[in-house]
Write a structure and sequence with these properties.
The protein is of the alpha/beta class. It has ten helices and twelve strands. Strand 7, helix 7 and strand 8 form a beta-alpha-beta unit.
């Protein structure tokens, strides 16, 4: 059995609109080991959510088209599965916590019905057993089972997110995709949610893709870090390698943007100049070349390849091509 539960290989996704072709994913490749958490980071528009939707088989078509690549879950290509098999896998083997809990729950149904419906669909149990299981999951995330009879509007934002986590974990999925689950929450609730997810990962040995743009959150929860830019992975490695020895100029720029409470300087925060390239008009060479302080002539002409810096540390940058720069 492979050590990787999920393998994404050279994934390309386009959105074909009346205004033109949006190249959203441009060769995304990374693995999710069993029982580990991947922190998928990058700016808005990097392709993080689109990649997650592709894993779930939920890329809207039209206009979305997966033009090439593979998404191997337990060795089987998700892109070749029938709709029936995908429906059976979603919520059972793969679950997703969406970014906004306010819109993830149906406002006209009680929480208990929504959770028990999911359990009945995938676990082949009766309503009474499903409701018992739903109550157990609510208590695991710190909500009294009596709240099963409440409607979503009777919960705070943090409690709604806990309900979504409970629902996502109710069928003991092998893979959990969390799409910025703490973005809309205050820092106190953020910390509680992160502690909750770490505890649940240890209890159920669930593999997780944690999508975020906050490096501080990644430091708290991830085992490995995947840095995405313009629909591709530009650097990936263990948490320690990425945080202590980042290689790509973009990754270094992300860390430079973080405030330093130990610094005596009171100047403005550093920023990465420019913006993410237009996905309808991507640069010919490196997608980061126009914003990169270390760009060379070749960066504007040729797309860099993955370079293996260490056993689990890869970077896509011309600076580390053979003989270009010391590693």
């Amino acid at each position: 059995m492979s050590d990787n539960l999920l393998e994404i290989k050279d994934l390309h996704i386009e959105f074909r609109t009346f205004d033109g072709v949006v190249k959203a994913i441009n060769g995304m490749s990374f693995n999710v080991p069993r029982g580990k958490t991947i922190g998928l980071v990058g700016e808005t528009g990097a392709g993080k959510t689109t990649t997650a939707l592709a894993v779930m088989g939920l890329v809207p078509s039209p206009p979305g088209v997966i033009t090439s690549g593979q998404i191997l879950f337990e060795g089987e290509d998700v892109l070749k599965m029938s709709n029936l098999k995908l429906r059976n896998i979603r919520g059972d083997k793969i679950s997703m916590i969406f970014q906004n809990p306010m819109t993830s729950l149906n406002p006209v149904y009680r929480i208990g019905k929504q959770m028990s419906d999911v359990i009945m669909m995938h676990q082949n149990v009766d309503r009474k057993t499903a409701e018992q299981r739903a109550g157990d999951m609510l208590e695991i995330v710190g909500i009294r089972r009596e709240r099963l009879n409440n409607y979503p509007h009777e919960f705070s934002g943090g409690m709604k997110q806990r309900v979504c986590i409970a629902m996502g974990l109710s069928c003991n999925p092998q893979l959990l995709i969390a799409d910025e689950p703490t973005t809309a929450l205050d820092v106190t609730i953020q910390a509680q949610i992160l502690e909750l997810m770490k505890g649940l990962k240890e209890k159920y040995n669930t593999s997780t893709i944690f999508i975020t743009h906050a490096l501080g959150v990644v430091a708290e929860i991830a085992d490995y870090v995947v840095v995405a830019y313009a629909g591709m992975v530009i650097e990936q490695g263990s948490l320690k390698e990425i945080f202590t020895d980042p290689k790509h100029p973009y990754t270094k720029g992300l860390f430079a943007c973080l405030p330093d409470i130990d610094s005596e300087s009171s100047g403005a925060l550093k920023v990465i100049p420019g913006a993410m390239p237009d996905p309808m008009q991507l640069p010919v060479g490196c997608k980061f070349c126009k914003r990169c302080p270390e760009a060379m002539k070749i960066c504007y002409m040729k797309e860099p390849e993955d370079i293996e810096i260490a056993e689990e540390h890869k970077v896509r940058c011309h600076l580390y091509q053979m003989g270009s720069k010391k590693q």
